[in-house]
Amino acid sequence: MKTPDIPKDEKTRLHTLVSLNILDTPQEERFDRITRMAKHLFKVPIALVSLIDENRQWFKSCIGLSVLETPRDISFCGHAILGNSVFMIPDATKDERFSDNPLVLNDPFIRFYAGCPLSAPNGSKLGTLCLIDREARHLSEEDIVALQDLASMVEQELAAVELATVDELTNILNRRGFLMLARHGLSLFIRQKITASLVFLDLNKFKSINDNFGHAEGDRALIIFVDQLSKMLRESDLFARLGGDEFAVLFSGTPKEIAEDSICKLHQAFNKYNQESDLGYDITFSYGIVEFNPDKHQTIEMLLNEGDQLMYEHKKYSKI
Questions:
Q1: How far apart are CA 247 and CA 132, in angstroms?
Q2: What is the model's pLDDT at position 319?
Q3: Which of 289, 283, 284 is nearest to 308 (CA)?
Q4: pTM over cut 0.85
Q5: What pLDDT, on a 0 to 100 scale, did the predictor assign at position 117?
Q6: Which fold has domain 175-317?
Q7: Packing angle, helices 300-317 and 175-192, rounded to 10
Q8: Cβ contacts of residue 95 below 8 Å, gap of 6+?
């Protein structure tokens, strides 16, 4: 087994990592969402955001693995941060650097590993977004580009640790967070030729809820709406409060017709909720659905604008 070398900028690298105040912090949805996307896209059992501390690799996001850290001297990611490109081991049992590694011989029984270094704005390699499989395999050039796209999403999250990307009331993405992740999502959809649809949602008569019941009750209505919608979504879907009573969902791998089915189920769920609850008002919504067309929607903003227009037409048609 070969122990990872120490990067030449180790002192600066560790100082940069510590300055983020991210080590040993709780898991966060904005990182877990990316590792879930990676697990789903590459069909691997394990996907991690691994940060390399002085003596350990610590997992900010850990999908498919029960531990939160392992020693640095046996880490695959310790090797990955020494370069600038994706570090890939197709079969660890046939690589003399890893064939007798405890992580290969014992749980999680690593066979395949691919890690893309995560760079801080100053260029320091802080860790990796990595994929692990218990079977030997290989990534195509297209797969490598897709992994790099996802890693750049993690880098943006790391760079924006001090910036708010989560809505404080509902604990989902805010507009900034949604735009940041959706831009990379669209790039990924184009490269992988993945169908996607965006739904723009707006609560009906929200102002009257605030006026008649108070802003605290308006906040409660927003939280209820988010809770109900969250039950209809998959782990790989992006969901955000854009502001006020406006929301957006970016469904990956989903044509418009399937997205429409999901929204119909949401309508049914709220019909039932409104009948069973005693709020004094009904929670209803209008929506617009747009299927992503790379030739038509060059930016996520264009996709949102079209969804907003369709939502407005739906609201106007329904006379709400």
A1: 34
A2: 60
A3: 289
A4: no
A5: 98
A6: Alpha-Beta Plaits (3.30.70)
A7: 110
A8: 89
Residue 310, amino acid: L
Domains 10-155 and 175-317 equal at CATH topology level: no
Q: How far is CA 279 from the centre of its chain?
A: 33
Query: DSSP character for 94?
Result: G
pLDDT score for 162:
45
Instruction: Please report, for residues 58, 112, 140, 155, the alpha-carbon distance to residue 1 in angstroms, rounded to integers and kept in the order given.
Output: 21, 16, 27, 30
Tell me the CATH number of domain 10-155, given options 3.30.450.40, 3.10.20.70, 3.40.50.920, 3.20.20.10.
3.30.450.40
Residues 86-121 as b or e (16 or more Cβ within 10 Å = b): bbbbebbeeeeebeebebbeeebebbbbbbbbbbbe
- Please provide the size of the chain in residues: 320
Smallest Cα–Cα separation from 189: which of 55, 305, 300, 45?
300
Task: Tell me the C-alpha distance between 164 and 243, whole Å.
Answer: 14
Q: What are phi and psi of 65, to 5 degrees?
A: -130, 140
pLDDT at 260: 95
104 neighbors 98 (Cβ within 8 angstroms) = yes
Peptide bond before residue 117 is cis, with ω within 30 degrees of 0: no
Please list the ranges in the chain whose pLDDT falls under 50. Answer: 162
Other residues' Cβ atoms within 10 Å of the Cβ of residue 8: 9
* Terminal alpha carbon distance of the chain: 67
User: What are the E-state strand segments in 100-195?
Assistant: 112-119, 125-133
> Using an 8 Å Cβ cutoff, are 139 and 156 in contact?
no
Instruction: Name the residue among 122, 228, 223, 239 with its Cα closest to residue 173.
Output: 239
Distance CA 172, CA 241 (A): 7
In whole angstroms, what is the distance from residue 196 CA to residue 252 CA? 5
Q: Domain segments of the chain: what residues?
A: 10-155, 175-317
The helix (run of H) or strand (run of E) holding residue 58 is: strand 56-63
